[in-house]
From TrEMBL:
Pfam families: Complex1_51K, NADH_4Fe-4S. It catalyses: a quinone + NADH + 5 H(+)(in) = a quinol + NAD(+) + 4 H(+)(out). Gene3D superfamilies: 3.10.20.600, 6.10.250.1450, NADH-ubiquinone oxidoreductase 51kDa subunit (3.40.50.11540), NADH-ubiquinone oxidoreductase 51kDa subunit, iron-sulphur binding domain (1.20.1440.230). It comes from Alkanindiges illinoisensis. This is NADH-quinone oxidoreductase subunit F.
Length: 449
C-alpha cells in the first residue's frame, strides 16, 4: 500500500462543526475544555437541560430511536439495554461508566476524558436521569492519572452549578457521580468483573443471569456503558434521532459518528471522529497518511488486540459492525492496529497471547491453563524449537477456548488474533519449524499409513 499524498496529519480537532462532529467539534475552538463556563458557552449542558424537561420515559425513547450502539466493543444498543433495567422500587440504582480502557491499541476514551471531561459528565447525567439512578461511578484505569484529576475537578464545578446533588434543577431527582480508580486489570473491561472490583472484591466475572440491569452493584439494578457511548447523548438530545442516524456513511446500519484511530507504522498515528461506515482504506491512507516510506501493509486488526486479523484485500470494507463481521472479524473499538511486512506474525501473535495469558483472572480452567499453553507453543515455534504438531495444538486451542466453553469472553477474544494469524499466515508458522522436525513428522505419518 502506498502512502497518501498528504504530508500533514489531520488531527481530531482540526475540522468539523456541531452538526458533523458531535463528539469533538468543541476541540476546534479549544485544545482543552476543563472549565464549565467555557463548556457551557459551546452548547455545554444544553442537552442535559433539555432532557430534564422531559420525563425519563421520553428521554429513553429518544435514545432508542437514535439506535445508539455501545462504543466499548460489543455494540449492543444502549436504549434496549436500558429498557431491561428493573423497575424503580425506591431503592438505590446505579449507573457505571466503564473507563478502564485496557484493550491494547485503544486510547479513544483517554482523549475524551482528558480534553472533554464535562461532555462525559453531561452524558452520564442524562443517562442517570433517564434510568432514575441514585449514584454514578466512573470506573477509570489507574494509569489515567490526569484524566481522573480533570474529571474530579469538573465534578466539583458541576456540583457548584447545582447539576449534581439533591433536587437537581428543581426536578426532585437526586444524583451524584464519583470517580473510582481501578487497580489495573484488563478483565475489568468485562462489566460484571468491573462491578466486583468496584465493590472491593476480586475482579472475576459473574454468572449471568442475573444480569446487572436486575442485580448488579451491591445487588441493585445497574447499567454499565462506555465513555464514548455517554459522550453521544448530549448532542442526540439537542438535535434529535433523525439527525444522528443520518450522520453515518456508505448506508451503514450503525448510526452516528465514531472515533476511529490507527496505531503502528503509519505516517500519522492518531484519532479522528468520522461517520460510521468510513472505509478502513480511508482511515489508514487519508487520515493516518498511509504506511511509512518503504513499508507495505501486511495485516490489520480492526478494533484492538481481541479482534481477528484482516488483510489488504479487506481495506475497502466500511468500518461498521456488519461489514467487518462478514469479513470474519469484529469491529471492536474501531482503533486499527496495522502490521507491516517486516513484522513476524508468529512473534506478534505470541506477544498478544502473552498479554491475554497474564490478564486472565484464573477463574475457569480453559482460560487459566489454555492461554499459557498457547504462549508456550508460540514461543517454541518463534525460537526454532517448534514442531508441526504445535501448529495443530494451537488450532485445537482456538476451538477449545471458544465462545461457550469458557466462563466469559476473555479467552475467546484472545483466540481471535491467533486463529486469524493461522488462517492467513500459516506459512510463516511452518517456515519456522526446523526441517528435522518436519522430517520426523513426515516419517511417522508414512509409517502409520
Amino acid at each position: 500500500m502506498t502512502s497518501h499524498v498528504n504530508t500533514e496529519p489531520r488531527p481530531i480537532h482540526g475540522n468539523g462543526t456541531a452538526e458533523t462532529h458531535p463528539l469533538t467539534w468543541r476541540l476546534k475552538h479549544h485544545e482543552f475544555l476543563h472549565d464549565v463556563d467555557t463548556y457551557e458557552s459551546l452548547e455545554g449542558y444544553a442537552g442535559m437541560k433539555k432532557a430534564l424537561k422531559l420525563t425519563p420515559a421520553e428521554v429513553q425513547e429518544v435514545v432508542k430511536a437514535a439506535t445508539v450502539k455501545g462504543r466499548g466493543g460489543a455494540g449492543f444498543p444502549a436504549g434496549i439495554k436500558w429498557s431491561l433495567m428493573a423497575p424503580n422500587d425506591g431503592g438505590p440504582r446505579y449507573l457505571i461508566c466503564n473507563a478502564d480502557e485496557m484493550e491494547p491499541g485503544t486510547f479513544k476514551d483517554r482523549l475524551l476524558m482528558e480534553k472533554l471531561p464535562h461532555q462525559l459528565i453531561e452524558g452520564m447525567i442524562i443517562a442517570g436521569y433517564t434510568l432514575e439512578a441514585t449514584q454514578g461511578y466512573i470506573f477509570i484505569r489507574g494509569e489515567y492519572i490526569e484524566a481522573a484529576r480533570y474529571l474530579n475537578e469538573a465534578l466539583e464545578q458541576v456540583r457548584a452549578k447545582g447539576y449534581l446533588g439533591k433536587n437537581i434543577l428543581d426536578t426532585g431527582w437526586n444524583f451524584e457521580i464519583h470517580v473510582h480508580t481501578g487497580a489495573g486489570r484488563y478483565i475489568c473491561g468485562e462489566e460484571t468483573a468491573l462491578i466486583n472490583s468496584l465493590e472491593g472484591r476480586r475482579a472475576n466475572p459473574r454468572t449471568k443471569p442475573p444480569f446487572p440491569q436486575v442485580a448488579g452493584a451491591w445487588g441493585r439494578p445497574t447499567i454499565v456503558n462506555n465513555v464514548e457511548t455517554f459522550n453521544n447523548l448530549p448532542a442526540i438530545l439537542l438535535r434529535g434521532p433523525e439527525w444522528y442516524i443520518n450522520l453515518s456513511a456508505h448506508k451503514s446500519k450503525d448510526p452516528g459518528t465514531k472515533i476511529y484511530g490507527v496505531s503502528g507504522k503509519v505516517r500519522f498515528p492518531g484519532l479522528w471522529e468520522l461517520p460510521f461506515g468510513t472505509t478502513a482504506r480511508e482511515v489508514i491512507e487519508e487520515y493516518a497518511g498511509g504506511m511509512r516510506d518503504g513499508l507495505k501493509l501486511k495485516a490489520w486488526l480492526p478494533g484492538g488486540a481481541s479482534t481477528d486479523f484482516l488483510t489488504a484485500e479487506h481495506l475497502d470494507l466500511p468500518m461498521d459492525a456488519d461489514s467487518i463481521m462478514k469479513a470474519g472479524s469484529r469491529l471492536g473499538t474501531c482503533l486499527i492496529m496495522v502490521v507491516d511486512e517486516t513484522q513476524c506474525m508468529v512473534s506478534l501473535t505470541r506477544n498478544l497471547e502473552e498479554f491475554f495469558a497474564r490478564e486472565s483472572c484464573g477463574w475457569c480452567t480453559p482460560c487459566r491453563d489454555g492461554l499459557p499453553w498457547s504462549v508456550k507453543a508460540l514461543s517454541a515455534i518463534e525460537h526454532g524449537r517448534g514442531k508441526m504438531e504445535d501448529i495443530t495444538h494451537l488450532e485445537q486451542l482456538t476451538k477449545n477456548l471458544w465462545i461457550g466453553k469458557t466462563f466469559c469472553a476473555h479467552a475467546p477474544g484472545a483466540m481471535e488474533p491467533l486463529q486469524s494469524a493461522l488462517k492467513y499466515f500459516r506459512s510463516e508458522f511452518e517456515a519456522l519449524i526446523p526441517k528435522e522436525a518436519e522430517s520426523v513428522v513426515q516419517t511417522s505419518n508414512a509409517q502409520q499409513a
